[in-house]
Amino acid sequence: MYKNALFIVLIAILTGSQAFAQDEKKSSKRYQDYKSKLDSESPSELLRHAEQLKTTSPAQALDKVQEALGLSLAGKDLFNEAKCYLLLGEINESIEEWKLAFENYSIAYNKLKPRFKTSPEFKRAISGLANTNRKLGNYTQALVNYDELLSMKLTSPERSQALLGKSEVYLVLKDYQKAEESVNSASPSDAGYVSGKVIDDTLNIRSQAQRARIYAQTDEVERAKSAIQSTQNTLRSAPSAAPAAQLEDLKIAKEEVANALHEQERYDDEIDLRNQSIEFNLETKNLPEVTKDKVALSKAFAAKGETSEAIRELEEAALMADTINNPKEQAKAFLSLADLYEKNGRSEKALSAFRKYSQAVKKAEEQNQIKLAERADLISKQREIEEVGKDVALGQSAESLAEATVFRQQLIIYGLLLVIAIVAITSYFIYKNAQASKIANQMLALKSLRSQMNPHFIFNALNSVNQFVAKNDERTTNKFLSEFSRLMRLVMENSQEDFIPLHKEQEIISLYLKLEHYRFRDKFDYTITIDEGVNPETVEIPPMLIQPYIENAVWHGLRYKDSKGHLNLTMKKVSDGLQVEITDDGIGRKKSAALKTENQKKQTSTGLKNIEQRLAIINKVYNASYTVKIEDVAQAEETGTRVTINVPERKNGKA
Predict the structure, then answer these.
(1) Which letter does DSSP use for residue 196 in this model?
(2) Cβ of 286: how many Cβ atoms within 10 Å?
(3) Dihedrals φ, ψ of 631, to 5°?
(4) Per-residue pLDDT tens for 446-499?
(5) How many Å is the Cα radius of gyration of the chain?
(6) Which of 426, 430, 439, 569 is most buried per CB count within 10 Å?
């Protein structure tokens, strides 16, 4: 037994040694390649080009950073190596990958701190850490970062930017006094600037927008409106086009003020503010924001009872969104438009708006998938950069070992142990990178799947509307459209989440059953029972998990029954989470399969297949144990079907 074990260990060591030798050869070659380029290529020049490309072409910028990092490591240029990680953090920040940005800023910070504490790059690293900590919700640490930055020797613009960042943290923490003190301390008029009007204008815009947000949250609405007007005037008088960040600051401030006016039912003031915003954004050619304002304007007009004005604004918003190829805003406009038409008894127009809404949602999803793919490519490129760093570092190590002939005997003695350790570490990192890539792909697939609702139901629901319209059943049409619009709105709102509270899923199920009962009221009744031990506010569940099984019960079991059937939905607490049972007394799976046409037999239920794929991904990504059991239930001489879904308990956001 011991001989066999020893033989296995020796085989593993020899195999590992061979693999290590190959990896070492590859790393050494990559290291030598970069070393040979040092005379002809400059890391500083590559990083300068990457700086220019980081906003317009992040992928090309990452290629430059990869080359610069390899050269910096080969030349033992610690400063440019740190700049590579700093630039990676800034690229991550531009695509809103906050966790990756934080990791790269941290590496840059640690590399710069020992020897380059007075450099502008060290200030950028601290500023990056402060911003990413704020975005990640680490507000205490963000304040520590801003204080560290403010303790350094800064230019007036740098100090003002840091103070404005602190003000934003205090605003999130609802410490309005400190938020206002920070923004007042950051005022360009107090700073004695010599850096030029462009920087003055930029800081003025941020300061005014931040004041507007503070006033909006402290119910000083008039002061907030005045601050927004000042911001718009400053942007109009700026010598060049406003940076996107300043327009974003203005947009956030304007929305907070407009929402405050809406809550106070000051609709005329809200309309006036949004019209000013529309005029400004038309001047600056910011058409997406014009579209959003028009959708919001329609809500204010609708709240005033001015339905025709509300419809006009929505129609213009939908047309503008289509013109600028913004299907997401177009979908919002058509959904609100359909709701208004339905409320005013214009059923045919409501149906037409719903169809356009469905088309816009599909187009928006396609655009979203393209963006997700581009984002995944950028993250993949960064993983390649990490591999370059490891390879070049390993190549340096191999060269150093070759030069250190004095320790050759010791290396022979401990070589096998070193090989085992390096193989283990290398395998671990390769496994971690593979797992991270796999999880990223699974999360992309999950985002795509969870936003889908069974098109079979949507198609049949719209056909039902046509039937009601054809029968001149206006009351039923209006009622059905109202419930259908609520259901679609809930599905759209919840599709962005991996998990939602049980009460939201319950609301979707109730609406869905209500709609199906409108159509098949002579075919079935239903009962929803939730045990007292289940708290719908705290239990979390993947969205649209239960609905496809209910749809299957209605369409393949109860619909074909000669007598009136019954569907029972029960939710009860069990030791390891929640158990959901869907029971029907329909014709059963065997008889349902026999009734299917040849074409139907070739098809797979989209909703059920979607759920199976989603649960498989969720179980892998969240290390969970969601299970679904489907069985026949004999009832007298008939059969029904029971679906049992086990939902594990989630603690602290984890399954």
Answers:
(1) -
(2) 20
(3) -145, 155
(4) 555 555 555 655 666 677 677 777 776 778 778 888 888 888 888 777 777 778
(5) 31
(6) 569
Q: DSSP assignment, residue 97?
A: -
The answer to whether 502 and 536 have CB atoms below 8 angstroms apart is yes
Helical residues (DSSP H) of 557-605, grouped into ranges: 588-595, 598-602
Q: Find the helix or strand (DSSP H, E) in which 500 lies.
A: strand 500-501
Beta bridge partners of 566: 525
Residue 470: what residue type?
Answer: A
- The answer to whether 157 touches 203, Cβ cutoff 8 Å, is yes
Q: What's the token pair of residue 66?
A: 């990869």
User: CB neighbours (10 Å) of residue 553?
Assistant: 27
Domains along the chain with CATH numbers: 1-28+305-451 (no CATH), 494-648 (3.30.565.10)
Q: What is the DSSP string of 131-155?
A: HHHHHTT-HHHHHHHHHHHHTS---
For residue 373, count other CB atoms closer than 10 A to its CB.
10
CA gap 478, 498 in Å, rounded: 32
Residue 345 in 3-state DSSP? coil
Lowest-pLDDT range, 109-123, 327-341, 559-573?
Answer: 327-341
Task: Concatenate the DSSP letters of all residues of 239-258 into one string.
Answer: SSPPPHHHHHHHHHHHHHHH
From 226, 217, 227, 128, select the one nearest 187 (Cα to Cα): 227
| Pairwise CA distance, residues 267 & 639, whole Å | 58
* Residue 384 exposed, middle or buried by CB count within 10 Å (0-12, 13-18, 19+): exposed
Q: Are 333 and 312 in contact (CB under 8 A)?
A: no
Q: What percent of the chain has pLDDT over 70?
A: 76
Q: Are 202 and 188 in contact (CB under 8 A)?
A: no
pTM for this prediction: 0.53
pLDDT at residue 340 in the model: 79
Kindly report, residue by residue over 182-194, the tens digit of the pLDDT.
988 886 544 333 3
